[in-house]
Amino acid sequence: MHPSTPPSAGPPHTANAGAATVALTALAPASWGTTYIVTTELLPPGHPLFAGLMRALPAGLVALAITRVLPRGDWWWKAAVLGALNIGALFPLLFLAAERLPGGVAATLSATQPLLVAGLAVAVLHDRPTVWRLTWGVLGVVGVGLVVLGPEAGLNVVGVLAGLGGTATMAGGVVLTKRWGRPAGVGPLTLAGWQLTAGGLLLLPLTCTIEGVPERIDAGATGGYLWLGSMGGLIAYALWFRGVGKLPVGASAPLVLLSPLVATVIGMVSGESISLPQAFGFVLALAALIAAQLDPPSLNGLYGRVTRRASAAPHKGEQRIRAEDRIRDEIRNRDQDRTGGGRVR
Known about the structure:
By secondary structure, the chain is mainly alpha-helical. It has helices spanning 12-32, 35-41, 48-67, 75-100, 103-110, 113-124, 131-148, 157-180, 188-211, 219-246, 249-252, 258-269, 276-291, 299-312, 316-339.
């Protein structure tokens, strides 16, 4: 390659593939944004363990029936750990927070997950987050807070602890999923099935011992469980684990900001009004989500381009000096040719 030829930016389909991965991965937290409205409007109250069980175990068994692949070797305990973090602990804490807290408070707690992931990534993955992504992570939390928090937002201690606990367990699940990856030949649907089944089996004895089955499950609750188990469970987690494996951990974690934003949009569609600070917060959170997928602007690249341009076009004074030197060299070479001396190069 000629030295002045700029490096290739890569085939166009590479960037398209990255954008497609981000878009598909984003469908998972977008679907999770419906959890609050489904929980409060359709599901029987007071049964967070049962709701988590119905969201996890049936979907996990369906995935196992489709893929017919079981873990091997150390993936038995790895799948159990990931299932406990991403499913078994997360689901009941999520439903408990949804029942005890206003949706805005619960959503703001979940929006802190990118910052928790960044901290865990340093310890587990030895991956130091950039100032760019940390800054946008903080701005994303601020944006979500402006959207969903209001003066009427009440704080329940149990609900806050449940919300923070759920956020922490999922952050740990994201980091370990990135660290362990997937076994060779195992697809994201299989990995989701392992974890949903493991988490569901963890919830089964707890549900039977502590809560039991709700006295009445009507058609609305049945539809809510089906939605949470299919789109909010099996499909969402298959897309999520696929994206976590392909994207940098600092890019996948901020996508969870979509969850409270989708919940806000649902509220607006239901007739809720939005104030100017809320609108600003929505735009700020959306900008943080998008900016986290991009590389920070490089000042070094700009400096390099300016330097190359300056060196390619020397100053007029330098051009005159070089021309005079060439003339002197040519005169000296002619004189030395006449006397038999060497040429100046």
